[in-house]
Design goal:
This protein is α/β, with parallel strands linked by helices. It has 11 helices and 10 strands. Helices cover 43% and strands 22% of the residues. It is extended, with a radius of gyration of 27 Å.
Length: 300
Amino acid sequence: MAALQCFEASARYLSFTQAGEELYLSQSAVSKQVAQLEMTLQTTLFYRVRKRLRLSTAGQMYLPEVRKILGVVEESTLHMLSYESDREILSLAAHPTFGARWLIPALKGFYDLYPNIHLNLKDYVQPFDLAKAGIDVAFLFGSGIWEGLETIKLFDELMIPVCQPQFLSNHTKQLTNVEEFQNYILLQCQSRSASWYLYFSSQNVEIDRCYQGPGFETWSACIQAAEMGYGIALVPKFLVQDELIRGSLIIPWHYELASHGAYYLAYEAQSADIPRIKKLVDWTKRHLSNQILEESEKKE
């Protein structure tokens, strides 16, 4: 490991002296470690040219692999340093905007109820394999049918247009008809590239450039761009409740598009009996039941 660390640092600096300063070793100690590594591999990793280093072809090929090894060791070490015998780790994954705006606030009740279960939340944007990613529970958007996964439906999704209050021309806060959208910049969320087309086609309207406009990878970036006046964003309604209450965003056209998907809690079928996962699943079911009861009481 010491030899690998010396090689990686020397490759970054192309200097045994600077590598030694980083690793708190002498220049000669670093040089000896690298020389021993070259002997073990029976290949030259560096060329020494006028007191400067240059990676050989073999060294260039070896460097990415060494960085992977060192990265895994560092991650495993940090994991062990954070380990507490009386605590469990529940690994979760969610789209970053969903995680920040809905999941983290919602799970506060679970965290209060089970303080010995530490939540480890990772962001995802693209589809992934739960087992390979080391994820216990994922919060996904889609049909709810994924091979090998058990799911619990959380809620449906309604899409609404939002923009900065001063964005619309003539300082009006409402469009008079849906065709007026063609006069404005339409912000695009790259993971839902067809959203604007579906929004307009569901109203039997054709709008030019519905696929064109500044693109953003996440809903959070799209929402912030709308707040800054970049254009009109089409976003899930539940994600912009705070902005609408504050008045930093308005709804210029009151038509809501029901998405073809919904939000789900998902976990591998064979993991259903793992205690920490079972506790989250049971708590989520109770949480959703309480939400439905609260909403019905409000309507009454």
